Amino acid sequence: MADYRQIMRDGIWENNAVLVQMLALCPLLAVTSTATNGLGMGLATTAVLLTSNLVVSALRNIISNEVRIPVLILLIASIVTLVDLGMNAFMHDLHKVLGLFIPLIVTNCVILARAEAFASRQSPAAASLDGLMTGLGFTLVLVVLGGVREIIGSGTLFSHASLLLGNSFSFLDITLIEGYRGFLLMILPSGGFLALGFLLAGKKWLDLRKQDREAEATRRAKIATINAMSDEEIMQQGEPS
Amino acid sequence: MHEPNQIKPPADSKPTGGIKQKMAYHPALLGGIALIAGALLVFADAGTKGEIAARQAEDLRASLTQVVGDDVHDNALLSDTIVLHAPLEFSDASGVKFYRARKDGKVVAAAFEVVGMGYSGEIRIMMSVQTDGTIMGVRVIQHAETPGLGDKIEARKTDWIKRFTGLSLGNRTEAQWKVKKDGGEFDQFSGATITPRAVVRAVHKGLAYFNAHRAEILDTKTLPGGPDAEVPHG
Q: What is the sign, positive or negative, of the torsion defined by CA atoms of A143, A147, A150, A153?
């Protein structure tokens, strides 16, 4: 019924929440001053997206159309609060790093958008996959944007990664440029906008290049078939367009 | 003609009945979901409250250990406290709690929490002062400052906060208790001046309060492990 491969492609790349749908720019620009913050926020958002899509999809037959928005917001806010409480109690160290950003997830429009546009119409399995993939796509952009801003802004990459992932990941913490004095603009929100602009342009360029290549490939295929045809066949078909 | 007419009424009444049903259905649905969500949150809160309180107590103990080293005292800091009702900026309604560090029964230092107003809300700071009024240590225990800019006040990110150790009102003048931008001697961070300014100000105020109420804070009559002594409006 649902095309799972298409869901995966859409969530991560082709219909990426940030790069294509231009959603969730507020948390995106607020937390991506380092790659580690981006990763943490991305993973927390993914967890909420997965849960909210699953719950909304499971309840989709009893939620009436007229009150769906308040019901969805209520569900999402409750899930975020549960995640917040659970993390505070059982993953306290992680919560100390991410605690500031967790309540922000409620205001993340991607979650409401996926619940409304996808989960309320699809089976729980498809909706869960969509939540996971959309979340991973969001995480990807957060990490890339955080990484770019961190490298240019502070000369480091994944600084304080061990606070988020534990000491075994401290190797991720790299100082790329020793004695770098920092480029403040990139750490401030305005730098986030700039970096996001370049990221969007990059995505557009990749898409256009892919389009060109496909067009080129079809043209070549056409020429090849024409070359393979005998003169008689060409005469029969008339002039190739 | 007869038959369709007979069939029609039930077909007509069904949607109207459905809408009526639906009119009640919406609030019931919303209320029901709110009830379930509320109940879930209550359970989750009850289930995690103890755990969170325990973690926070651990945090408190950890932040106390950071400002009062294990080698300078031999008592249980958490149980040897005194609360002063200080109508000051840095205290909340319940007053300031002073944790006294004793060595062989003698008070050597007191640790307490001060609050500064940073760029985005309160910055909670734990500081400890020796009996002679010299700062033993300062640590930020909670804040909501901008990640990457203002969070350099955390000891695990930079050494900035350790700068306070050894300072007192005696060895620094009033004018020196400021960030460099304001003519003082504390570094600000590029892009974040409000945050360090708030910390310096809060620590300075805390130190001044300690000096003014030294006798009450260090009052040795309260036995270690005894109940909290309340001194109204010290």
A: negative
